[in-house]
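Incident review: delayed structure delivery

Summary: a single-chain prediction request sat in the queue longer than the usual turnaround. Root cause was a stuck worker, restarted by the on-call engineer. No data loss occurred. The affected request and its eventual output are reproduced below so the record is complete for anyone auditing the incident later.

Affected input:
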Amino acid sequence: MTALTSPTSRRLLWTFTDGLTLVGRELGRLRQNPGELVAALIFPAVMVVLFGYVFGSAIQVPGGGNYREYLMPGLFAMVTFLAVMGVMTRMATDAARGVMDRFRSMPMARSAVPFGQTGADSLTGLLSLAIMVGAGLLVGWRPHRGLIPTVEAFLLMMLLRYALSWVGAFVGLVVRDEQAADQFVPLFLPFTMLSNAFVPTGGMPGWLRFLSDWNPVSALTAASRRLFGNPGAPSGDLAWPLAHPVATVLLWSAALLLIFVPLSVRTYRRKGR
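Output delivered after worker restart:
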């Protein structure tokens, strides 16, 4: 009882409840602007069709197999990484329009705002994943290793997405301008392309392959292929991140959270001084 009524516990409870309120605010904003939600949900399905049938006719899967089964873990990883851009843009937009200043004038926990934004992104991320899973099943993708490994793969995706959303929160707070945030979007896209998500990396130059091997997108893609039992799962003499992709995703997620959660909260508080 004493632990539950301590100042630290009350502060954490205050932050949690205020964060949930702001999650509801973000979801309500999406209901008022359904076009944004529809676009976010249609995009994954379009990517499945575009990459699956356009690239699928030209790329050979290492070791053989269906390209769309090889592709789907990479598309899951790509959509996971897009959390950076979504949260970054929303944070910068709220800052530019004075929404952050109104929040600071209210009796609410200062750290609740970034927690609310990242929490809302996790919920919309679940919807995006569900749409993409449906599209993947329609084009022939299947997980082959049973329920538990499949659930583990999706939990890895949601964990890394949540960690990446804090990167987006920090960048959005730093730029504080929606136009500037839009200019950052093309800078993040190469991270998804410089990976094993869409094509094998064996033909890349050595220095480019090194960057790809240590890219968290590559680790998530490799872990998903292994857990789903899809073609292209890593094997042989590999760089450490691809030889241990599940551990690599966990380490990347922990490192991003340890760095960007305190950075985001501190930046939000400092912007109000």
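Verification: The chain has a mean pLDDT of 81.
Action items: add queue-age alerting; document worker restart procedure.
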